[in-house]
Structure formats: C-alpha cells, structure tokens
Amino acid sequence: MTQLGTERPHLPSSEPRRLSGLDRWFKISHRGSTVGREVRGGITTFVAMCYIVLLNPLILGASADITGARLSTEAITTATALAAGVTTILMGLVGNAPLALAAGLGVNGVVAFQMAPTMTWAQAFGLVVLEGVCIVFMAVSGVRERIINAIPMPLKVAITVGIGLYIALVGLVSAGFVTRTPDSAQSTVPVRMGIAGHLEGWPIAIFCLGLLLMIVLVSRGVPGAVLISIAVATGLAVLVNSVFRVEGWGLVEPKVPDQVVAHPDFSLLGDIDLFGGFASAGAVTAAVFLFTLVLSGFFDAMGTITSVSEEAGLVKDGKVEGMGRILLVDGAGALAGGVTGSAPNTVFLESAAGVGEGARTGLASIVTGGLFTATLFLTPLAAVVPAQAAAPALVVIGGMMMAQCARIPWRDLDFAIPVFLTIALIPFTYSITNGIGAGLVAYVLIKICKGKIREIGWILGVLAAVFGVYFGIEGIMSWF
C-alpha cells in the first residue's frame, strides 16, 4: 500500500499556504492527507466494523452467569455502541491515529463463556475494569512501549503480515466464501470453499461481485474505492433480497429497516463489582482470568496498532508515532468496556479498511466514533450492511498488507522460523496473541541455543517465559 504519510506535501515557497486549525491539530497536511480522505476513511472503517454492534450482543447474550441471569440484547447493544463511540473519539483526540476501538472479539467470548459461569455479570465486568487499570498503568509507566520497542523489527513485520492473512481470512469466513468442514472421519481439510465445497447462492455472488469491483477500483486508484464498493454491494444485496427473499446472509439480512430510531438502554452502565469475582470463582481462577485478559488485550492491540500504523505510514525508525498516547487510550478502552458492560474494547483490525481509503490522522477516528455514537439511536440502520458487502474490504486490505513480506530477512535463520510461526499461527489459530507468543518463544530459544543470550535482552526473556506460562496455563491449572 502506498505510504501517503511519509512525505510532506509540497507548498510553494513564495506563498506558503495557511493551515486551518483543524489541519494543524490533526497534522492532516503533514501526513499527506486531506479532510475529505479522513472523512471517507472514517466512514469506511465504521462500515467495515459496525457488525460488532450486532455480534457482541449475540456473544454476550448467549451465556448466563453463575446465578442464571442473562443480559438483554438492548442493553448490550447500547453498551457496545456507547463504548465504541467514546473510546474511538478519544483515540482521535488524544492518539491522533486512524484507529477505531470496539468490544474485542475473542476476549468477549472469554467473558461470556469462561468468566460469567463462575461469577455474576457485575463481577465479570469488574475484572474487565481491573484489566483496563493494569493496561493503563503499563502504558503510563512506559513499560508497554518499552516491550513493544524491544521486539525485533523482523518479528514486527511478521505480525503485520500475519494480521493481513488474518483479516483476509476473517473476511472470507464472514462472507461464507470459506467455511469450516464438519467433523467427520472423511474430512481431510479443516476448511473448504462455500457451504459444501463449492460456491452457490446470491450472498456469495454479492461478495464476489463486490470483491471484483473493489479490486478493479483500487487497482485504478479511484478515490473512495473501498467505500464505493461496499455501498454498491449493499445496494445490490438489498435489491436482490427484496426481490428473491434470499436466505443465507448470516448475521445481517440486507433489508430496509421497519424503523430508523431506537431508544438506548443504559442499564449496564456502571453495574460492576471490582473484586467480587475473586470470592465467587476463587482467587486462583479469577487471577488466571485477569492474566488472560491482560495478556490477550496487550498483544492483540500491539499487533494491530503496529500493523495498521505501518500501513498508514506512521512508523518511523521502527517506532509508531505517538505510541505512548495510543497505548494509553487503548488501555482506557478496556476499562471503558467494563464500565459500560460491553467487554474489553480494543483497536480493531478493520481500521485498516479506513487506512486503505486514505485515513492518516485522528480525524478519521472522530468520524468513526461519531457514527458509533449515532448508532445508539439508529441501531436499525447498522443492520443494513451484510457481511458479504463489507468483507471484500478485509480481503483487499489483507492482500495489501502481505507486501511487507519483502522486508523480512528470510535467509537469516535466527528469524526465518520465528517469523514463519508468527505469520502462520495468527490466522490458523484466529489469535494475534498466539502468533506473537509462538514467534517470541522460538526466537528466544534459537538465540539461547546458539549462545547469543546477550542479543535477547531481559525484556524478551521475560516475555518468552510469560508466554510459556500462557501456552501451558491449562496444564498448570490442572495441578491445583
């Protein structure tokens, strides 16, 4: 992807152009962008990730806590939109980065299916708040940034490439282009194309048409290519669904909503019990839950922030511009997720879709956050864009991120296998944390075995040990 943020636009020396207050605050011209690109990128990011407003309630609402209580869909929807809106706007104002936050997929499953059955919802969200406090402390103290800077550049590049594959796979799966093979003795592959090994149906056709249109528009450098493709695919989906009454769209059925305005439900706001979970689930179990939340939130965000910032041209000398402020907001996002009752909020991979549209500054995040805030009252409109219309953006952006492979020193055997493990395990295990952990452990082990312990540094050594505990936590827990 073209690094638009790496060069300052040329201004005639005889008559320098005066920059507006908005431009100066967000450094729009300095990063080679325009207000139009930022707005377009912010809208694109929202369109690509607004599904979380519908998906998070399904995940959190699918489980009951230790008392048998379940969360209402209306309350979770409000909490999800509120937290995403506030934290993404905060990222724009404080972090000045085109990074959007929302309830993290994966960690919301930990909250729903592992934590809630052992404690009340208030206690589970209390642990989420404690996670946020831990991450904020690490950001303020500078520990988090030092850890990120300690990771060798080839492994950072591998994270970007692995995430590119990850978001492409997420897009293909969410569209139904790739599906899991049912467990059976005859199964020889874990995934397959389409529902039964081949492509059929209008939803897949809409996805393919949207993907082909996006590829053509992006390759021709058409402004707004991603957003145009999503809009066209959504329009076709609504039209096809209204004429043929198509099934198989998945979570979102593309249709004109019966009503536009919905009333938010703030009943989960502030309903937390900080330390009750340690009594309900037991001190060791609750501590393991907290450890898992912190570790996953820490490294998932690190990988996403690094890779998306790289695509936006915000990485200089191996460091992300304004990383300290970005990490602080990310930690505050986890805390906000607990306070609102929406699960830990973290930076979303779909931010790359907005970057693909030219977003380079926090103005794009403010646009995205504003749209999430509006969703509090316009939830029905979020249900118009099907996954088949938004998923092509993830596939195309993921493909562009693969270009970073050229920067990896494949002939250096100290990095080759760790880099490969990082790239492979991120999409294969659907976890950024797993990929980063496997790569770090392998890298440290290779250095130790080759007698190059001094090249590791104490930070990477500690990280490798922590990930060793992380990977073996289930076995360790079985001893208690």
Automatic annotation (TrEMBL):
Q: Where are the transmembrane segments?
A: 43-64, 76-101, 121-143, 155-179, 199-218, 225-244, 274-299, 326-343, 363-384, 391-410, 416-446, 458-479
Question: Per UniProt, what is the membrane topology?
Answer: Multi-pass membrane protein
User: What InterPro entries does the record point to?
Assistant: Azg-like, NCS2
- On the tree of life, the source organism's domain of life is Bacteria
GO molecular function (one): purine nucleobase transmembrane transporter activity
Q: Name one GO cellular component term.
A: endomembrane system
Q: Name one Pfam family in it.
A: Xan_ur_permease
PANTHER family per record: XANTHINE/URACIL PERMEASE C887.17-RELATED (PTHR43337), XANTHINE_URACIL PERMEASE C887.17-RELATED (PTHR43337:SF1)
The Swiss-Prot or TrEMBL record describes its family as follows: Belongs to the nucleobase:cation symporter-2 (NCS2) (TC 2.A.40) family. Azg-like subfamily.
Q: What is this protein called?
A: AGZA family xanthine/uracil permease-like MFS transporter
Natural source organism: Amycolatopsis umgeniensis
